[in-house]
């Protein structure tokens, strides 16, 4: 169970501690932050409300620990990461339990997230040894006008202290996707988990603690964003920010200063369906892409742009599959579970009401019980409806009928988002042309949008983000280039 056994140290009474200097601590504030179970809508857990002074101490420790860690051999860093990955997977059950209770993630998906996270940490360790173990050698006479009198040696060195801020929907996986690259590259890391998902993240951090990482190298501070959020992101001790979430990231980018940023800020992922598409394949991917984890994924299908000539058939196929989705508690492994909070449910309901007032066709009856919203397909959605543009982050999916491919591309590109999209057609040449025209970081051909496998590049355009993720890209992003130039008194040529 959560907070027991090897995890007993992280809990004091009914409040989970924060992690600093290799120890689990209570905040001097004497205050806590409640975490509401989305299913019961009652307080499930409590975490420490850390102070700004505690953040300062964490940053000082992180800076000191990083200096020593940067001198730790690459193979040793990798060895500790492999150990943490094994511990994480060994204790998947209690961490998955937290995911079920904190964010209403279906039980089987919660276990999958933890196992996937362990695999990601191990892969990152291996990849880091490969790409950080190589440097580059340049000679001066490759540039016009120069003799071979200079040898340039370049290598990647760590940035320093990385601030990692993952989102509620993958508080373990999207945390380790930042932690592992930072550590293998020789950085220290300060984690600020989301409130919903904080206890899952604290359990995950304890797995790194049990692996034996040096004190101060990894820290995890919890608390109210209103009290320590800006203080963290604007802290002079931070050398890089990796953030996944919503439009808060835009505000962070304006305040952060001259440091590298890695941000993924959501999307309105379009699914363009052509007349020659395999409609059974499309329908299956719409269900998987639009309704898994109740649509609370940045890479969920958010709008279907289907050619008018095949729209009726496709809508019927999707309706049949929606009717088979199970709705209920995450403990029962239902397909559709409560959304993360009452405010999220209210926002989704607002989009639904707007669509109804403006004449969208409801393929199912709209139904809500607390935070639980039944899956809903909206047909005949028009561009003047909010749902056509806004990201619901819930199990509501709009269908816009189009009369040309160009119309579909135009709608996709008119969005302020540009994370992912997908196109369904049997004509691969046409698919490539459409992919090139879509202003998104990734386009999936004949499959729903997805983040992963985790070593694939993952990036957004426009308001969907800055920089690129994926194991290799994250490692490279969390390093900088260092060059040493050897100057020779006379030109030197091999075998000359």
TrEMBL record:
Which reactions is this enzyme annotated as catalysing? D-glyceraldehyde 3-phosphate + NADP(+) + H2O = (2R)-3-phosphoglycerate + NADPH + 2 H(+)
Q: What is the lineage of its organism?
A: Eukaryota, Viridiplantae, Streptophyta, Embryophyta, Tracheophyta
Q: Which residues form the Aldehyde dehydrogenase domain?
A: 24-483
Q: Which PANTHER family match?
A: ALDEHYDE DEHYDROGENASE (PTHR42991:SF1)
Q: What is this protein called?
A: NADP-dependent glyceraldehyde-3-phosphate dehydrogenase
Where is the secretion signal located? none
Localization (cell): Cytoplasm
Q: Matching CDD domains, A to Z?
A: ALDH_F11_NP-GAPDH
Q: Which UniProt keywords apply?
A: Cytoplasm, NADP, Oxidoreductase
Q: List GO molecular-function terms, semicolon-separated.
A: glyceraldehyde-3-phosphate dehydrogenase (NADP+) (non-phosphorylating) activity; lactaldehyde dehydrogenase (NAD+) activity
């Amino acid at each position: 169970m959560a907070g027991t056994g090897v995890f007993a140290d992280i809990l004091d009474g009914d409040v989970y501690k924060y992690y600093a200097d290799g120890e689990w601590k209570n905040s001097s504030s004497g205050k806590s932050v409640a975490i509401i179970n989305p299913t019961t809508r009652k307080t499930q857990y409590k975490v420490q409300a850390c102070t700004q002074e505690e953040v300062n101490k964490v940053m000082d420790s992180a800076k000191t620990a990083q200096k020593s860690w940067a001198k730790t051999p690459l193979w040793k860093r990798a060895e500790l990461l492999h150990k943490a990955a094994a511990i994480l997977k060994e204790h998947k059950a209690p961490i998955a339990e937290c995911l079920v209770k904190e964010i209403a993630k279906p039980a089987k998906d919660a276990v999958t997230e933890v196992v996937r996270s362990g695999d990601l940490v191990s892969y990152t360790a291996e990849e880091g040894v490969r790409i950080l173990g190589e440097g580059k050698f340049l000679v001066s006479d490759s540039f016009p006008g120069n003799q071979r009198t200079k040898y340039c040696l370049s290598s990647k060195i760590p940035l320093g202290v990385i601030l990692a801020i993952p989102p509620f929907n993958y508080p373990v996986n999207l945390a380790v996707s930042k932690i592992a690259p930072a550590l293998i590259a020789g950085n220290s890391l300060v984690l600020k988990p989301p409130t919903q998902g904080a206890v899952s993240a604290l359990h995950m951090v304890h797995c790194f603690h049990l692996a034996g990482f040096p004190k101060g190298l990894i820290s995890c501070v919890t608390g109210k964003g209103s009290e320590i959020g800006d203080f963290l992101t604007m802290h002079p001790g931070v050398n890089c920010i990796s953030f996944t979430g919503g439009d808060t990231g835009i505000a962070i980018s304006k305040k952060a200063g001259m440091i590298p940023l890695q941000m993924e800020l959501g999307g309105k992922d379009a699914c363009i369906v052509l007349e020659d598409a395999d409609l059974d394949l499309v329908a299956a991917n719409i269900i998987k892409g639009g309704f898994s984890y109740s649509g609370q994924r940045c890479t969920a299908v958010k709008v279907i742009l289907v050619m008018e000539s095949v729209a009726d058939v496709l809508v019927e196929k999707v309706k049949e599959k929606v009717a088979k989705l199970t709705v209920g508690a995450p403990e029962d492994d239902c397909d559709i579970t409560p959304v993360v909070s009452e405010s999220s449910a209210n926002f989704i309901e607002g989009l639904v009401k707007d669509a109804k007032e403006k004449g969208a066709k409801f393929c199912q009856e709209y139904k809500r019980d607390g935070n639980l919203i039944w899956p809903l397909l909206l047909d005949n959605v028009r561009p003047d409806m909010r749902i056509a543009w806004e990201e619901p982050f819930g199990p509501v999916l709009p269908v816009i009928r189009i009369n040309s491919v160009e119309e579909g591309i135009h709608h996709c590109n008119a969005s302020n988002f540009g994370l992912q999209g997908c196109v369904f057609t049997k004509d691969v040449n046409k698919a490539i042309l459409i992919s090139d025209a879509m202003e998104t970081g990734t386009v999936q051909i004949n499959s729903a949008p997805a983040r992963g496998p985790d070593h694939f590049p993952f990036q957004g355009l426009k308001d969907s983000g800055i920089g690129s993720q994926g194991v290799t890209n994250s490692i490279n992003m969390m390093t900088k280039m260092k060059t040493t130039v050897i100057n020779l008194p006379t030109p030197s040529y091999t075998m000359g």
